[in-house]
UniProtKB/TrEMBL annotation:
Keywords: Membrane, Transmembrane, Transmembrane helix. Residues 140-221 form the Potassium channel domain. The chain crosses the membrane at residues 21-39, 45-63, 70-93, 99-118, 130-149, 169-187, 199-219. InterPro entries: K_chnl_dom. The keyword GTP-binding does not apply. This is Ion channel. It comes from Solitalea koreensis. Pfam families: Ion_trans_2.
Length: 233
């Protein structure tokens, strides 16, 4: 019974529709939960629940590949355990480890999704939504890069007066990361160190090149596929 249910989940998450669900989870995480990070423990629980769902998504995304299945499960469990312990015990080293593992996880998940997007088969609206999910994941990758940098070098950013607890810092850097990714740049948070300045430049360039190259290419491929199908009728 358990194996049958697990196989059904694996089959579902290997379909293109799962990319749309991942995009929905990321939208909730970034635009609904993160702005309320000042609520403290309540927002931490909500963020952890969503983070866990995204972890599960990542595990099921590679479940068809036996070479990556168990390493993915072990890595997801490690991320989950470190995240929970860092929230419970408020240890700076656990927090930094959590930031580092989050960076690795979001990078790996982005690569997995990109591979699935260009997997054999037609380019669908779900794959285009998957590319948008990767764009949002890039914002989260840099969010945790900024958090890790700020934890190691406290004067690496000029910040407005905010609470310095973990939740408030996460909300502030989610905001800063996506402002940088879209090159909006309001100037209320600024990099103040060579490392943070380099990260900001890297994210700004990525934010310009990714939609222009990958997403635009996918949209044109989807239109071409639909046009060819219409001509065959």
């Amino acid at each position: 019974m358990i194996n049958r249910t697990l196989n059904k989940l694996i089959r579902y998450w290997s379909r293109d529709e799962s990319l749309s669900i991942l995009l929905a989870l990321l939208i909730v995480l970034i635009f609904i939960i993160s702005p309320f990070s000042y609520l403290g423990f309540v927002s931490s629980v909500a963020l952890t629940v969503l983070f866990t769902l995204i972890l599960i998504t990542g595990v099921f995304s590679v479940s068809n590949n036996r070479n990556f299945r168990w390493p993915a499960v072990i890595f997801a469990l490690l991320c989950f355990v470190v995240r929970c312990n860092s929230l419970l015990f408020f240890n700076v080293y656990l927090t930094r480890l959590d930031y580092f593992l989050s960076i690795l996880f979001f990078i790996l998940l982005s690569l997995i999704i990109i591979k699935r997007i260009f997997f054999e088969g037609d380019i669908t609206i779900h794959r285009i939504q998957g590319s948008i999910a990767v764009y949002l994941l890039i914002g989260l990758i840099f969010t945790y890069c900024y958090l890790l940098t700020f934890s190691l070098v406290p004067d690496s950013f000029n910040l407005p007066p905010i609470k310095t607890n973990r939740e408030s810092m996460l909300g502030a850097f989610v905001y800063f990361s996506f402002v940088t990714l879209t090159t909006t740049g309001f100037g209320d948070i600024t990099p103040n160190h060579q490392i943070s300045q380099s990260l900001v430049l890297m994210e700004a360039l990525t934010g310009q090149l990714f939609p222009a190259i990958l997403i635009a290419r996918l949209v044109s491929m989807e239109i071409s596929t639909r046009y060819n199908k219409d001509n065959q009728k």
